[in-house]
Design goal:
Layout lengths: L11 E4 L5 H12 L3 E6 L3 H13 L4 E5 L5 H15 L4 E4 L14 H29 L10 E6 L12 H21 L4 E8 L14 H8 L10 H12 L10 E4 L14
Parallel strand pairs: 1-2, 1-4, 2-3, 4-5, 5-6, 6-7
The structure holds nicotinamide-adenine-dinucleotide.
Amino acid sequence: MSYSPYLLKGQKALITGASSGIGEAAARHLAKAGASVVINYHSGKEAAEKIVGEIRAEGGEAIAIEANVAKEEEVLKMFTEMYRQFGTIDILVNNAGLQKDAAFVDMTLEEWNLVIGVNLTGQFLCAREAAKEFLRRGVKPDISCSAGKIICMSSVHQIIPWAGHVNYATSKGGIDMMMKSIAQELAPQKIRVNSIAPGAIKTPINKDAWSTPEAEAKLLKLIPSGRVGEPDDIGKAVVWLASDDSDYVNGETLFVDGGMTLYPGFATGG
Ligand code: NAD
């Protein structure tokens, strides 16, 4: 992918859960477009440091910061450390997420709280800290026409119910209303808040669904475009939503799903 390295020049981006999958791709794409990136990681220290090294080797600027996004004190420390090293924040990619699946009647409160805590509360905590800095600093016209951009990683499951994954689907439905409410509140201050809703993307979170030919064939029945998505498909969408090219897009969800939300089961009747 070739971007102008000036597209996001001078902008500082934080990507949560960036030591693998979609977050890693988002960080690499943002760095290619000229942003300085913070690779937040929770468990993948070695992977995060490798990504930092590779971005630097290509002439980009990157650092890694550890934090559990579900813990307020760790989030506050992460932002403090980012400001110490980079001075400010222009782009937040609220990406960290996990699944802890169980049949509804078997789901424990711990499984429910873990997924809501990381996927929804984690996004709230990071968005709040980023927004405070956007408001403090305001617009710097030579950097961007926005005071700041927040991109929430949602899922097609913000609208498609998902049996056996009630905690996950609920967290993503919550992200939709959180994103829109923040966008409505902060739009007058020139802050943009949007979501990306990926369909099935080949990452560790859903390896069982695509890593064998049988599983992939079953998954493809849900994808009109006929291929499982790659992290790069999402990385490109992140760059567009982070750049001034999408300046008039606010409070929206961009579905990047190969048509999964076209309800392909209805293609032959219904
Ligand atoms: P992934 O497992 O590779 O990435 C998730 C990342 O979040 C990991 O790096 C993990 O270490 C990190 N993480 C987990 N708990 C954390 C915590 N408490 N604090 C900080 N980081 C934490 O999977 P992925 O597919 O790249 O997932 C990224 C996002 O995309 C998630 O929000 C996921 O729900 C969403 N998503 C993925 C798909 C898909 O098909 N892969 C589809 C829709 C949405």
